[in-house]
Amino acid sequence: MLTVGIDLAAEAARTAVAWLDWSDGRARLLRVAAGADDTLIVEAVMGASKAGVDCPLGWPDKFVDFVTAHRAGHVQVPEGLGRTWRRDLALRVTDQVVHEETGLTPLSVSADRIGHATMRCAALLAELARRGRPVDRRGGGAVVEVYPAACLKLWGLPYRGYKRAANVTELGRLVDRLLEAAPWLDLGEYEELCRASDDATDAVVSALAARASALGLVSVPVGEQAEVAATEGWIALPTAPLDRLVSLGSEGGP
């Protein structure tokens, strides 16, 4: 099985892609590409069994409805709710579930700069559909939305304080802890890049999360959540320890 992790930013300069090959009870990092452009990302997804994308796959339904109503001049604000009514405009259902489950709050796709990355993501999803690989935003198809910080926390690994060049020491400690927790993970010639670039490390974590999704070891939307997730997207949270990624599955697939 080949899984891909994509740490998606608005521009190629901060985007990284990682390829993990799973066979014989091990995961080998075949490649990490920093500065990944759209063409590379699409080709990576097309060639993978599963791709984990660290970026929202959609906007909150209530935000879309709000903007549509505002354009037409028909916005109606609920009475007596103060500022709380804006929560559902800023956060998707999956964002609120992640907060409930992990205590972490994903960036708001409608009220933060991550919206720029999501615009890029929307174009990538359209291109994948054009090539015959449409994306199920609930995570059931070729692509699953992931959140590296939440994955790391749920796997008992450091999940804060390793971003940006000023925190490269903490990033190195995270890589140390990851390799201790997953002795079956071989970063090969790309280990130094992972120690120097949080984008590269997040791409690797996203590829690990993609494997978890392929094996059914992640949360999935249920009931009304599933209907909303079809348009908003769904962050797949790991539901099993890290070592289950190699204790299940075989060389050929899940």
TrEMBL record:
Pfam family for this entry, one: DUF429
Superkingdom of the organism of origin: Bacteria
Official protein name in the record: DUF429 domain-containing protein
